[in-house]
Amino acid sequence: MLITFEGIDGAGKSTQIQELVHALSARSIEAVTLREPGGTAVAEKIRQILLESSHEISPIGELLLFSASRAELVQEVIVPALANGKTVILDRFFDSTTAYQGYGRGIDLELLRSIIAISTCGITPDITFYLDLEPEEAMKRKFSKTSIPLAFEGDELDRMERSGLEFYRNVRQGYLDIMHIKSERFVWINALDPVAVIHSRIIALLDERFLQNQSSYDERNAMGTSKSKKERFL
Ligand code: TYD
């Protein structure tokens, strides 16, 4: 089973992932937790290049670097984990590319679709929790509830975070559009709700959709992964 978390920076994904890992572990389900970009030796190096704020990167260069990092993670870690019936929790996946590089940077969505298909080997999440937050609120969180800096500069911001409020408004709009198109796998969550409330909702939804039949679900998933692997690599 592949569970992904999406949302703009500061929406609280990491906290919810930690809570979910604890809850799964209490049920003896050991999850593989990963984040993008990163997760393999090469992907972590690409992450450094992408987030370091001392240089500029062109939108297409940025897209290809995120995609290269993803290709490494998918082939080295995600495909084998899913084939072994593991539960994989991923902090960001290709929906981030659609929202950030498509809606944020303005790259053609058709072009993105082809590159995403190559970098993911066609793998799609079973469920995606989208933590929705207004960019202004996210920046207030980042700056510990003080005022939002107008220039988006400062040592505490990485290269992506320096992209400005308008960029983040477009990214959020991207997520909302994806949510409407992919309504069968996207779950909208109000990131302003208390951590415990969000966590309970996530567990209730997973219980309802998958966890009650965890073992049979994973068997099916593992079979499905190996069956379609050939097609995916063609
Ligand atoms: P990170 O510090 O992991 O941010 P967060 O904690 O918010 O997930 O930095 C990842 C940054 O990269 C984040 O700003 C989102 C961006 N990103 C893209 O622009 N495209 C992508 O495909 C991915 C995976 C991330």
Ligands bound here? thymidine-5'-diphosphate
Number of domains: 1
Radius of gyration, Cα only, in angstroms?
Answer: 18 Å
The percent range for strand residues is 5-15%
Total beta strand runs = 5
Give me the CATH fold name. Answer: Rossmann fold
Question: Separation of termini?
Answer: 23 Å
CATH architecture: 3-Layer(aba) Sandwich
CATH superfamily: P-loop containing nucleotide triphosphate hydrolases
Oligomer: single chain
Return the average pLDDT rounded to an integer.
89
User: What is the CATH first-level class name?
Assistant: Alpha Beta
The proportion of residues forming helix, as a percent range, comes to 55-70%
Largest sheet: 5 strands, parallel
- Count the DSSP helices: 9
Describe, in plain words, how this protein is organized in 3D.
This protein has 234 residues and is α/β, with parallel strands linked by helices. 57% of the residues lie in helices and 11% in strands. The chain has a single domain (2-220), classed as Rossmann fold, CATH 3.40.50.300. The protein is built from 9 helices and 5 strands. Strands 2-3-1-4-5 form a 5-stranded parallel beta sheet, with helices on both faces. The longest helix is centred in the first third of the chain and has 25 residues, at 59-83. The radius of gyration is 18 Å and the shape is globular. The chain binds thymidine-5'-diphosphate.
